[in-house]
What we know:
This protein is of the alpha+beta class.
Amino acid sequence: MAEVAAAAAAVAVARPLVFALNGARVELPEVDPALTLLTFLRTKTVFRGTKRGCGEGGCGACVVFVSRYNNRIKKMEEMTVNSCLTLLCSLDGCAITTTEGLGNQQLGHHAIHKRMSGFHASQCGFCTPGMTMALYGALRNSISKSCENSQEDGSKLQLSAAEAERAIAGNLCRCTGYRPLLDTCKSFSDEVDIDDLGLREFYEENGLPPYDPTRDPIFPQFLIEEYEARESLERENGGVSASPDNGATLNGADRKYETSTVQPRFRFADSESAKDREKVWIDPEGLLDVFEAMKTYQGTAEVKLVVGNTAAGYYKDIRPNVYIDVSKVDELVKLCEKADGIEVGASVTISNFIGFLENLENLKLEGSTNGGIDVANSSTDGTSVPHVLAAHLKKIASNHVRNWGSVGGNLMMARLYNFESDVATILLGVDAHVKIVSLGSEGNIVTETVRLEDFLGKGALENGKLLQSIWIPIDKQPSKDSQVLFKTFRAAPRPLGFALAFVNAAFFARVSENKSGVVTLEEVRLALGAFGTEHAIRARRVEKHLNGKPLTWDVIFEAIRLLKTDVVPKSGTSKAEYRVSVAGSFLFQFLSPLLEKDSDHVSEFNGLLSSGKQRITMTDEYYPVGQPTVKIASDLQASGEAVYVDDIPSPENCLHAAFVYSEKALAKVKNVDVQEALETPGTVAYISAADIPPKGKNIGLKMAISEARLFATDLVECIGHFMGVMVADSYDHAKEAAGKVKVEYDLKSVGPPILSAKDAMEQNSMFPVHFAVAGETKPIGDIAEGFAEGELKLEDVQVSTESQKHFYMETQTTLAIPDEDNCMVVYSSTQTPDNVQRSIAVALGIPYHNVRVITRRVGGGFGGKVFRSSAIAVACALAAYKLRRPVRTSLDRNTDMCVIGGRSPSTSTFSVAFTKEGRITALKAQVLIEAGYEPDFSVFLPGDFTHALKKYNYGALELDFRICKTNTVPKTAMRGPGQVQGSFLAESIIEHVAARLKLDPEIIRERNFHDISSLSKYYGAGAAGSSESYTLPSIWARLKASMNWVDREREVQQFNEKSTWMKRGLAMIPIIYCNMAGSKSAMVSIFADGSIVLETPGVEIGQGLHTKVRQAAAFALSKLFSKGRGVDISRIRIVQMDSISMANSGITSNSTTSEGCCAAVQAACEILVERLTPTFQMLQAGAPDSEVKWDTLISKAMFMTDMKVHHKYTPKQSFYLNYGAAASEVEINLLTGETQILATDLVFDCGKSLNPAVDIGQIEGAFVQGIGFFMTEGVEIDKDGRESADGTWTYKIPTVDTINKRFHVELFNSPALQERVLSSKASGEAPFLLAGSVYCAIRKAVISARKDRKNWVADSKLADQDSVPDDFRLNPPASMTRIKELCGLDNVELYVASMAASNQNIKLDAQSNSV
Length: 1411
C-alpha cells in the first residue's frame, strides 16, 4: 500500500467531487472514500433534517432523493436512497434533495409537509423527514412513468392508492401506528376520495394543500453542462479531462486533471501518523481499468468493488482500504434481452432489473404460460417467469435499498458470507448461469460461464476475477404439449419484504396432462435457500423423484418426506424445525393445485394496507380545548427544521463519546488495557470511574428513591455494563477506539451468570418489592373460602411474557458543554431533565444549580428515556468536565439496544377456581419479574401489574411477586409498564377457564365484569369514582353493537368451515387502566405585544403535550371575552424544558403529564385573568359599545400588572381509571404461520378529549406498538447472556404491512368528569393493552386449525389423536414460528397422507362396487 502511494505521488491533481445539494453546487477536492452521505449531511452541512435512526438501511429515517443524468440515454434517473449506506464518492454528478430542499417555513412548505401535518401524521417527528422523502420519491416516480407513457410535460401525477401506500413500506415509525401516514400518502392518489381518509385539519379552501409538480426541485443545469463540457474536453485532449466550476466557464485552461481512471481519484488518511490506514477511491471507466486497479491493489490492501454499498448495512465490520467504483462500468451495467434469455450486468441495480422484467412482461416475450407466484405464501396463476421474478424481487429489502443495491452485489454476499439471499434462490430456480471474467496474459478478457449453483458454493473469487453478468434462460417457444409452472415463495416476518426470509424457494417444472387428467412433471427444478444453509441449493433427490412420474397424493407425500433429506439446516440454526416444515409447505403449494384445482389454498397479501374511521364527539365547552388542532411544529418536523439534540451544531472543539461496555454477563475485571485504543487516530481520552472528581460519586442515576452506578470497576454484571467511554474527534473514531479496548476478565471466581427468573429463584437472587407499591398487592377476600366456593379448578398454569425493546427512533443522545463558574449546560434527549440534572451534579460533586439541562423535544421515549438516559448524560458531562471541552454522543442503534433494557419479562403461575357457569371465585398467582442486575423500575411493577390484572372480579385474590435479579441489562419502564403484563395474565386466565368449560372467552369475560361495588373494593372508592363514571359496561355494549359482533362471529365460523389453510379468529377484550396523576408546575408570561410564553416541566416526546397545553392556555386566557374573540392560539408559544427555570420538574410519563401541565397552565392563566379583570372592566366601561381587544388590554395593563405567574398544580385524587374495549379479527396461514390483522374496532374512554386528533393518534400508535409486543417483538437471550435483538435486522417492530388492514377508533362520549382536568383522561398508554385482542383472536384461529389437524391425524393414521390436546399455551409474541408449531409442523404431511388414504378408500369402494 505504501509503495503504491509513493508511486502515485507525482500524479496531477484529481478531478474534485461535484454534486448538487438542494440545488446548490458542492465541490470537494478531498473526500474520505468511507464517508457516507448521511455523515456528510449531518456534520458538514446545515441540513440536519435527514436523521440517523439505525445506520443499517433498516429504518428509513435517513432517506433522501437522488437524481442523476444518464448521458448515454439522455435521460434523468431519480430514486430514493438510504443516505446512511450511500458513499459520498458515488454521488459524483448527482443532485441530492433532502426534505429541506422541498420547502421551509420562510419560503413555504411543500404539499407533503403540509399534508403530513394536516393528517396528524407526525408525533415525535424523528421519522417524518424520511417518510416525506420516501413519499416524494413515489410522486416523482409516478410523474416520470406518466411522462414516458403519455409524452406529457411531466406535471401529470398518476399514482395508484396501492403505490402511494407502498411508498413508505421501507420506513419505520414507532409513534403513529402508520394509519395517518398512509392517509397522507393516499391523499395524492386520484383513486381515493378525501372523505374516505382519516381525521385531518387543513386551512386551504378546497381541503387539501395543492401539489404542483412543476414547482418541485429540478435537476441543476450546471451538472449537465459540466458533464458534457468534460466529455467534450476529453475528446479534444485525447482523453485528458478538465472540470468546469460552473455552467459557463471551465476551471482554468492551464489546470489539468488526471485522466488515469486506475490511479486513485481520492486519497484520505485520518492523520499524518496514519498513512498505513490510507483509503483510496478509484473511478474506472471500463472493465480493463477495473482489472488494472485490482491487479495493483489486491494482496496489499482490503479491496472492495462498490456499486451501492448496501452490504455495509449488514456487514459493518468490513472496512476496506480500496474502493473501486464499478457502478458506471459499461460492461457491468448491461441489461438486455437476447434470443433465448436475459443478460443482467452485475452492477445493475435491483430496481432497474425489476423495471426491465416488468417491461418484458408487458411485451409478453414469454407468451402464454401457466406460472404463478407466492411471495408471502399466496398463489396467483397465469403469470410469466419475468413477472414472477419481478414480483419476488420487490419483496427484497426496501425500495430504497433496491434502488441503489446491485444484483451482482447480492449474489457476491451470498457467495462470500453465506448471506440469506432471495436473489440467489430465485435465479437458481430459473437455472441461471453467471459470467466470470478475468484478464488474460495478453491483455485480453477471458470469459468463463458457470452454473449459479456451482458459483455460490466456492467462496471468494480468485484474485483478478470478477462477476460480470448473470444469464437467465427464457423459453419463448413453449411446447404445445406442456406448460411452464414457475412459482417463488418466501416466509418472512413482513409480507412486503424489509426482512430476511426464514426460508425462500423457487420451483420450476414443465407440466403436461393427458386426456385422463393424469398430470406429469418434467424438468423439475426445486431451489431453496435461507433455511440455515451456506447457500441456496437444489433439492436434487426430490427433483429426481418427481421427474416423469404421474402426480398423485402418494407421490407428493413422498416428495415432502424426501425434501427433509435435502433441506438440512446447519447446526445452531434458529427455528430449524420451522424452516424445514415451511419448505415442505412451499412444495405442497407448488404441487397440490395440480390435483386440487378447485380447492382453496392461501389468500394473497394484496389490496390496501390500511384504512380506518375515527369517531369523535367534539364540544366547544372549553374552546379551543376539545378541537382536533394540528400538533405544534409538525410541519417543521416534516421539513426537517425541527431541532433535536443531535441536530444542534457542534460547538468549537467538540468531542464525541462512545461507550466501552462488558462483553461478559458476569465477571471480575482483572485489567482494562486502553493503550492500543488511545493510538486510534482522533482519540483523545478514556474516561472511567477513576476520572470522577474527588467530591463526586460513581453515580449514573440519582433519584429521591434510588440510585444506580455509572461505571463498573471490579465487577461487571451483564453484557452491556458500562465500563467507560472513549472520547475522540468523531463518533466513528470513538467507536473504533472503544472496540480496541482490551478487558481481561476472571470468570471462574464468580460462577455462572443468572440469566432467567428460574435461575434467580433457584439461587434466591432477589430484589425486594418497593415499599411504595406494597400496599397495592395486598390480598382481597378470603382465598381459601374462594377456592372452596369454586366448582372447578385449574392449578399451576404457567404463562410468560418476553422483554420488548423501546426502539424509539432517536437513540439516546446528549451534548454536554462546560460553562463558566464550574457549571455545565447539557442538552439531553430525556423524559426526566430533573433526574439528569440531579445525577450529573452528584456525579461531579457540584450543586444542582450548576447543572442546566435543556430538552426541547425527544424523538420518542416510551419510558426508555425516563431512567436510562441519565447515565448517558452523566458520562458525557464527566468527560466534558475533565477535558474542559464539549462532549456529545448519539448512540448507534446496536449499542443503544444492547445497553438500554426494555420491558421486564414476567413468568406467572396461577391457580383459579370457578363455577360451571364461568364465574371466577378465587385466583392465586405467583409472578416472577426479571429486573436485570439493577432494580431500576422493576421493583415498582407489582403495583401496576396488579392494577391491570384486577380488571375482572375474581372474588378472592392473592398475589405473590418476586423481583428477580439476573445478569442481564437492567429492565426499565416501557409504555404501560407492568400493566401490559398484568392484562395479559388476566386474559390468559379467562382463555384457560373458557377452554376448560368449552365456552366462548367473551362469555367468561362478561360474567366476570365488575359492578361498581366490586370495582371500589378492588381499586378503592377514590379511583373507582361514581357508578356514572364506570363506563366499561357501556363501552362493551357499544362496541358489540357498532362492529356487529354476532354477524361477524358467524361469518368467521363459516369461513373456517370452508377454508383449509387459512383460519380466522375474532376476539374482544376489555381493559381497566389505572393512571397516576402527579403534581406539575407552570410559568405563564405575557409580553407587551400580547404574545404569550408558556413553560412547563413536561417534555414533548410526540404525545402532543405542547399542543394540548397551548389549547388550555388559550381557553383560560379567553374567559374575559365572548366566544371566538379571545386569545388566538397562534399568539401562544411554549418553550423548551429548562431545569433551571422549571426546577424539580419530575417525570414526563404515565401519559398524565399532559393533563397535569394543562391544569397548571390553566390555573396560572386564571390568576393572570384575575389580575387583568380590573383593567378589562375599566376599558369596557370606557367604551361600552365596542369590544375590548386583547392587544389593547395588555398595553393598558402592562405597567400596572405583573404579567408573569408561576403555579403548581396538585391533583385531589392521584389514581383514576381508564376504560376501553377492542375487537380484532385475524387470519392465519397454517402453512407458514403468517398472520394478517384484518380488522380492529376500538372504543376508548378518555373523558372529554383535550384534543381528539392527538388522542386518536396516541390510541392508534399505542395499539400498534402493542401489536409488536403480542406478535413480533420477541427478545431471546443465548447461553452467554447476549440478547438476540440488536438492530433492525434482528428486531422487527410493526410496519405498514403488519398492522390492522382496517382500524376503526371511537372516542367514547363519556359524561362530564368534574374531578378530572377539563373532564379529560389520559390516552397514551392504556390502548397498548387492547392489542391483546389480536393475540386472543390468534388463539381462536389456532383452535380452529387444531380441530382440522385432529381430523387429519385420524384419517392419516400417522399419529394418535391425543397428540393434539385441546388446551395449549401460546405466550407472546405470537410469532409465525410459534403459530406454525401450534398448528402443526407436520400438518402438510398429515393432510397429504389423509388425502392419499381417502383416495385409496375411494378406489377400494369403487372396486367393491364393481364386484
